[in-house]
């Protein structure tokens, strides 16, 4: 796990960016505090920040060149099958001078060129420069666990692990209003777009080849999915469970590979508990970490984490997140975000990672299981609609009642009313629009109303409509449409653009690598070959995952309602407003001078937050605050 950045110059003017490489590298220091290096040759400059986890000896520091000096690599990630790949390469005459997976990737590229990607098991972004050809090959892993942004104009191509490094390299600081519009709805900017015009995110499973002045982006991996074939899976349910356990165990074992200790996040939910159950069989006194909210019982699930820790005899630490503690960490958290990202649970991951970094450099997590096995409440809602029945019809017809009842995310009752209202609203919409409603935190009309009139046409442009259509491509074929379509749409939208950036960004803010066994590509392929009936029923979510480990995990985990990982955001924002934070970034005077948002609309959000009665007001305010802090730091002239 590291940070990479680089320049490929097409002209002499483009080479001027090379002079900024050291500053760009410094912007990534948190990603790799153990070593740094810069490589310059011809039109190319590469820089690297290293977090040493596999093959930590100094000989493996990067940029790393082969013995001939022709090939040089900068790399961020981990390859879990690198030892077997190394043995095969040695049998073909390749000689190695380090114990690192970095050198294995370089030799594999020398042997097989771009086809090498298909043999890599793990997560990665790397760039390999061929000095003889003066070509650069950049590739991103199958599901987007590791980030890569790039910018290209007539003079140069610039790339980096984070936006902050690109800004140091001199990318234009021009806001993309179509991206801002999506961000206000989703709380993040989906790839391939970014918050800056011209800056793109390399899509998961894609590569970029640059030679001369013609960069070529290519798809090297696409998750195969056939809804009809999945519905006819030949394995019995029991056979599916046996295979799931085998694949998960294999994935956990692979992700424990490291030359430093590996711990695990433990929320107390099914997903992380399964991972800990399997990992504890391979690591004595596995270090596990959870968060608690001692002042906010509704958000506190630490007792379930403790049950799991005791059952599997882990070395467990509970990180207590208090209101004062979150307020103290707020500025550090906001400074760690180089592109607006407003999933509020990221603050908890940031604080947890800060503590974990004192003990270990790598942790396992349960990310991806909800998207594979239908773990979100919206999946249950969609399934109920598909099944029909009196209950679903009644909830939909009671829309006027849900509209007038109090709704919020801060108690069980008001949150349930919020969910029933969203269900009722979604039930009246076509599948694509319903999916978009349930994926967003703010309706399109509401988000658009926040922007000044001169920006609304730009925001809701053909570009925005194209991006939205692309994100909804799997919600189609109504004759074959089932819940698996929703899951694969979530895999590409929610997981790739929210969950994975969150754990990468927050973990790497403190030099911690997060590894999820549920993202093993063999397990993912298997999960999407399963019928919907294996994943969900009216009375159970993540059915096959729960049933497979029912006799392994504490029974208490099975007798509680599904609850997402959230923080007490409303209270935090109301307190933050009292400190003057809103006056600094959201006052009428500031908004008017900034020229992006409508003064009266932002004022209405502030007033709604004080009242605390609008269900979505906290996410609206949080998104605005995160954006404003970023804008002041990076774009305000």
UniProtKB/TrEMBL annotation:
Q: What is its EC number?
A: 6.3.5.4
Determine if Nucleotide-binding is one of this entry's keywords: yes
Signal sequence region: none
Keyword line: ATP-binding, Glutamine amidotransferase, Ligase, Nucleotide-binding
* Record-annotated Glutamine amidotransferase type-2 domain positions: 2-213
Swiss-Prot/TrEMBL catalytic activity: L-aspartate + L-glutamine + ATP + H2O = L-asparagine + L-glutamate + AMP + diphosphate + H(+)
Q: Which InterPro entries match?
A: Asn_synth_AEB, Asn_synthase, ASN_synthetase/amidase, AsnB_N, GATase_2_dom, Ntn_hydrolases_N, Rossmann-like_a/b/a_fold
Molecular function terms from GO: asparagine synthase (glutamine-hydrolyzing) activity
Question: Does this UniProt record's set of keywords contain Protein transport?
Answer: no
Question: Entry's Pfam families?
Answer: Asn_synthase, GATase_7
- Top enzyme category: ligase
List the pathway annotation: Amino-acid biosynthesis; L-asparagine biosynthesis; L-asparagine from L-aspartate (L-Gln route): step 1/1
Per the record, the similarity remark reads:
Belongs to the asparagine synthetase family.
Q: What is this protein called?
A: asparagine synthase (glutamine-hydrolyzing)
The taxonomic lineage of its organism, from the top, reads: Bacteria, Pseudomonadati, Bacteroidota, Cytophagia, Cytophagales
* Gene this chain is encoded by: asnB
């Amino acid at each position: 796990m590291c940070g990479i950045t680089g320049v490929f110059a097409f002209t002499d003017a483009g080479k001027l960016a090379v002079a900024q490489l050291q500053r760009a590298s410094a912007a990534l220091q948190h990603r790799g505090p153990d070593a740094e290096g810069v490589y310059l040759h011809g039109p190319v400059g590469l820089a690297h920040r290293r977090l040493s986890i596999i093959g930590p000896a100094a000989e493996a520091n990067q940029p790393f060149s082969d013995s001939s000096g022709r090939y040089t690599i900068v790399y961020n990630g981990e390859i879990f099958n690198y030892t077997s790949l190394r043995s095969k390469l040695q049998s073909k005459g390749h000689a190695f001078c380090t114990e690192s997976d970095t050198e294995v990737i370089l030799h594999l590229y020398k042997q097989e060129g771009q086809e090498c990607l298909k043999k890599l098991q793990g997560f990665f972004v790397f760039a390999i420069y061929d000095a003889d050809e003066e070509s650069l090959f950049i590739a991103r892993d199958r599901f987007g666990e590791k980030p890569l942004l790039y910018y290209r104009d007539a003079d140069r191509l610039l790339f980096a692990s984070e936006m902050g490094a690109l800004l140091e390299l001199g990318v234009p600081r021009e806001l993309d209003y179509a991206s801002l519009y999506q961000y206000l709805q989703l709380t993040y900017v989906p790839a391939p777009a970014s918050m800056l015009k011209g800056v793109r995110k390399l899509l998961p499973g894609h590569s970029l080849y640059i030679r001369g002045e013609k960069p070529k982006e290519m798809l090297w991996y696409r998750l195969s999915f056939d809804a009809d074939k999945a519905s006819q899976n030949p394995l019995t349910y029991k056979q599916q469970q046996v295979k799931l356990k085998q694949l998960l165990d294999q994935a956990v074992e692979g992700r424990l590979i490291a030359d430093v200790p590996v711990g695990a996040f433990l929320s107390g939910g099914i997903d992380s508990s399964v991972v800990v159950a399997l990992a504890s069989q391979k690591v004595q006194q596995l270090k596990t970490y959870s968060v608690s909210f001692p002042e906010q019982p509704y958000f506190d699930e630490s007792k379930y984490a403790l049950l799991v820790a005791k059952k599997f005899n882990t070395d467990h630490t509970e990180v207590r997140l208090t209101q004062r503690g979150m307020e103290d960490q707020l500025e550090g958290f906001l400074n760690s975000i180089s592109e607006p990202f407003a999933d509020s649970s990221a603050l908890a991951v940031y604080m947890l990672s800060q503590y974990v970094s004192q003990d270990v450099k790598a942790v396992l997590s349960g990310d991806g299981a909800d998207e594979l096995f239908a773990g979100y409440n919206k999946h249950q809602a969609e399934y109920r609609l598909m099944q029909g029945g009196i209950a679903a019809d009644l909830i939909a017809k009671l829309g006027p009642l849900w509209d007038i009842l109090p709704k919020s995310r801060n108690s069980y009752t008001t949150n349930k009313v919020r969910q029933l209202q969203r269900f009722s609203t979604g039930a009246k919409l076509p599948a694509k629009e319903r999916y978009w409603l349930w994926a967003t935190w703010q309706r399109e009309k509401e988000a658009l109303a926040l922007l000044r009139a001169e920006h609304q046409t730009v925001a809701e442009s053909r570009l925005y409509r194209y991006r939205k259509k692309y994100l909804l491509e799997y919600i189609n074929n109504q004759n074959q449409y089932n819940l698996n379509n929703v899951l694969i749409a979530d895999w590409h939208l929610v997981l790739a653009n929210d969950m994975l950036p969150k754990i990468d960004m927050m973990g790497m803010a403190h030099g911690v690598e997060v590894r999820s066994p549920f993202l093993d590509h063999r397990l993912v392929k298997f999960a999407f070959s399963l019928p919907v009936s294996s994943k969900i029923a009216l009375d159970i979510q993540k059915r096959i995952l729960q049933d497979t480990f029912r006799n392994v995990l504490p029974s208490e985990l099975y007798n509680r309602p599904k609850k997402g990982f959230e923080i007490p955001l409303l209270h935090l924002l109301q307190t933050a407003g009292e400190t003057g934070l809103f006056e600094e970034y959201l006052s009428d005077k500031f908004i008017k001078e900034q020229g992006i948002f409508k003064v009266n609309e932002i004022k209405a959000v502030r007033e709604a937050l004080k009242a605390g009665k609008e269900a979505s007001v906290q996410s609206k305010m949080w998104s605005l605050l995160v954006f404003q802090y970023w804008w002041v730091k990076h774009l305000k002239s």
